[in-house]
Amino acid sequence: MIDSGKLAIKNFTYILPDEYIAQFPLSNRSNAKLLVFDVNRKIQHHIFSAIPSLIPEGSLVIMNNTKVIQARLLFHKSTGAKIEVFCLEPYKNLPIEEAFQTKGNVQWKCMIGNAKKWKEEELIFSFEFNNIQGNLKAKRVGESNDLTVVQFDWLPSDIAFSEVLSHSGLIPLPPYMNRAANDTDIETYNTVYAKNDGSVAAPTSGLHFTTEVLKQLEDNNCKMDFVTLHVGAGTFKPVKAATMADHIMHEEQISISLETITHIKETIGISKIIAVGTTTTRTIESVYWHSILLMKNEIATCVINIDQWLPYKYKNDELPSAKEAFIYLCNWMIENKFNNLYGTTKIIIAPGYKFRMIDALITNFHQPKSTLLLLVAALIGDDWRKVYATALKEKYRFLSYGDSSLLYKPE
């Protein structure tokens, strides 16, 4: 058992000047800089468009195909006061995909801007849908874990909530981008392979891929698969606790198909598994732990529910290998006629964690004292300091619209 809870967060910080934080995307996604940290702990510098030549032939590249929703709604009270309603997740654990298809009314957990000026008044926003005038009403109906539960009702009532948001909402750019979202962000703050509505923040490591780069990966005999993790606002939450033990990890909805699980099983021990992003990493590592719970007969369900500290409760040398776990999981899903796993994860990956599933990680440069930086430190150890110091020295662009890195797990 490894006690990562005792990690002092003060040891995972660095100075990030404001001018290094990218405020806008590059005109060509794949022109971003790419820092490569190889298996021999050496650093190289490239352009992201070269990444197909930097990934071993035959690798399995796994991506998160979630799509960022236009989750910021701006209402005005009758007095003129502006109220911002930021939709974070459906109320009562309603699956996100189901919540988006709801028609007429739905309840969401929201963050409220200028909350003190909104009490009981019903807010109304007008929008146009297929040349028809529509309206969206919002009313506060309760509280849930420091968030406000908002009841939404809309006309025309025969359109889905996803359509309402796409005609009335704004893309929720991160707080460190000190600007309002514009129309181009709807495209640039989503990956070219985004498919499943549900995130309020982009899986930014995938923003650098273009259709041309994806085609070059295919030509290099690399396989590509997708998982879904809907990114919540908690991804921006800094670790304010002095030690990891006191940090409460945010929960996010995930799903993965039997087809992808099968491809992972067939790749383990044969070729490299490359995770595009911390969200993809957390998803496939969570699936490993779901497999372990199945093998230990602690659960018997296709519904994933991974607690943040679950991986740290076991001794590493007593656990099945990734290959064994995924062989078992595939057989179990086939026998029980499950085509998908779905559910939630709160897994926290910090130094002391043993990666089971990935050989390398494609990721951006993350905020100081963030759980994302802890994940990077878990993968490459104290060399994260060298990587980040080099990126700053070479004037890499940081955070969501910033440059990229390809980090191999050291041998």
Structural notes for this entry:
This protein has helices at residues 51-54, 96-101, 161-168, 185-188, 211-219, 258-267, 278-295, 322-335, 371-380, 383-393; strands spanning 33-37, 43-47, 60-64, 66-68, 72-76, 82-90, 105-113, 123-129, 132-144, 147-155, 196-199, 223-229, 252-257, 273-276, 303-306, 340-345, 360-364, 404-408. It folds into two domains: 4-67 and 192-408, QueA-like, CATH 3.40.1780.10; 71-169, no CATH class. The protein is α/β, with parallel strands linked by helices. The model has no long low-confidence stretch (mean pLDDT 94). Helix content is 23%, strand content 27%. The chain has ten helices and 18 strands. The relative contact order is 0.20.
Summary, kept brief:
The protein has 411 residues and is of the alpha/beta class.
* CATH architecture grouping of the largest domain: 3-Layer(aba) Sandwich
Helicity level, as a percent range? Answer: 10-25%
Assembly status:
single chain
CATH class of the largest domain: Alpha Beta
Number of strands: 18
Number of helices: 10
Strand content range: 25-35%
End-to-end gap: 22 Å
CATH topology of the largest domain: QueA-like
Count of domain modules? 2
Biggest sheet, open or closed, and with what strands and sense?
10 strands, mixed
Poorly predicted tracts of residues: none
How does the overall form come out from the CA principal axes?
globular
Mean pLDDT: 94
Order of strands, widest sheet: 2-1-18-17-14-3-12-13-16-15
Instruction: Tell me the structural class.
Output: alpha/beta
Topology pattern, helix = H, strand = E: EEHEEEEHEEEEHHEHEEHEHEHEEHHE
